[in-house]
Amino acid sequence: MNTLNKERNDRILVIDDNPAIHDDFRKILTGAKGRSVNLAEAELALFGDAPKAVRPTSFQIDSALQGQEGWEMVQRALTDGRPYAMAFVDVRMPPGWDGVETITRICKVDPDIQIVICTAYSDYSWEEIARNLGESDNMVILKKPFDNIEVLQLAHALTQKWSLSQQAKCKMSDLEEMVNQRTRQVQLANEKLKSEIVERQKTEEALRSSEDRFSRAFNSSPIPMAIQTLKDERFVDINNRFLQMTGLSREEIIGRTPAKLEIWIDREARGQMIEKLHKEKSVRDWPCRIRAKSGEGRETLVSLELFNLGSEHYLLTIAQDISDRLRLENQLRQAQKMEAVGKLAAGVAHDFNNILTIIQGYTSLGLSAPNLDAEAADALNEILRAAERAATLTRQLLAFSRKQLMQPKVVDLNELIVQVTSMLSRLIGEDISLQENLSEALPSVFADHGNVEQVIMNLVVNARDAMPKGGQIIVSTAKVEIDAAIARQNPEAVPGQFVCLTVADTGCGMDIETQARLFEPFFTTKEVGKGTGMGLAMVYGIIKQHGGWIEVLSQVGQGSTFKVFLPSTKLLAEASTDDQQVPEAALGGHETILVVEDEKGILELVRKVLQRRGYRILVASNAKEALDVWKEHAGEINLLLTDLVMPGGTTGLDLAEILLLEKAELKVIYTSGYSLALFGQDCPVKEGFNFLQKPYQSLLLAQTVRSCLDAPKKPPTHLSSEQTGA
Question: Measuring CA to CA, which residue among 579, 547, 580, 553 is closest to residue 565?
Answer without folding.
Answer: 547
